[in-house]
């Protein structure tokens, strides 16, 4: 079994899930944690989300901030095999990681490549368009 978890401070994870399901309707089941929106401590929400993940399963977890409490509370699970934690989630990174998934267990190298691909989508568009204009002028 593969479990996909989006976790964030407040409702970012919920909005990200809704957008993913719109763009990629066959992405599969996604669990969200919108931390600090209820009276449940974040570590309890995380424990509940990972309760059904056995050593034979894998979990791909995306969080909003590397140094944030949500991400930090997931790190205690990294000793388990097949737990993959990716901080700094954004739509291109998540899509790059999830699009190539098949039934086989994910290779960490595949995740690293997908993260790099997704990071390349973070662009200062002002400079990008200026460069496009300069390239057109050179032709």
Protein model, in words:
This protein has 139 residues and is α/β, with parallel strands linked by helices. The protein is built from six helices and four strands; from the N terminus they run βαβαβαβααα. It has helices at residues 12-23, 42-50, 69-74, 91-98, 108-119, 125-138, and strands at residues 2-9, 30-35, 58-63, 83-87. The longest helix has 14 residues, at 125-138. It is globular, with a radius of gyration of 17 Å. The model has no long low-confidence stretch (mean pLDDT 92).
Quick recap:
With 139 residues, the protein is α/β, with parallel strands linked by helices. It is built from six helices and four strands; from the N terminus they run E-H-E-H-E-H-E-H-H-H. Strand 1, helix 1 (12-23) and strand 2 (30-35) form a beta-alpha-beta unit.
Question: How many distinct beta strands?
Answer: 4
- What's the Cα radius of gyration? 17 Å
Gap between N and C termini? 52 Å
Oligomerization category of the chains in this entry: single chain
- Identify the overall geometry: globular
Q: Strand content of the residues, in percent? A: 15-25%
Determine the number of helices (DSSP H or I, runs of at least 4 residues): 6
Structural class: alpha/beta
List the helices and strands and how they pair.
Blueprint: E1 2-9, H1 12-23, E2 30-35, H2 42-50, E3 58-63, H3 69-74, E4 83-87, H4 91-98, H5 108-119, H6 125-138
Parallel strand pairs: 1-2, 1-3, 3-4
Helix pairs in contact: 4-5
């Amino acid at each position: 079994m593969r479990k996909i978890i989006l976790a964030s401070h407040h409702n970012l994870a919920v909005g990200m899930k809704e957008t993913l399901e719109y763009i990629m309707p066959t992405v599969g089941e996604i669990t969200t944690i919108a931390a600090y929106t209820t009276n449940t401590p974040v570590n309890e929400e995380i424990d509940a989300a990972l309760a059904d993940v056995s050593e034979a399963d894998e979990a791909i977890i995306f969080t909003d901030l590397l140094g944030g409490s949500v991400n930090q509370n997931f790190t205690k699970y990294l000793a388990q095999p097949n737990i993959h934690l990716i901080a700094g989630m954004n739509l291109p990174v998540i899509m790059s990681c999830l699009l190539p998934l098949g039934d086989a267990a994910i290779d960490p190298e595949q995740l690293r490549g997908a993260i790099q691909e997704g990071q390349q989508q973070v662009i200062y568009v002002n400079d990008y368009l200026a460069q496009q204009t300069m390239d057109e002028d050179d032709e």
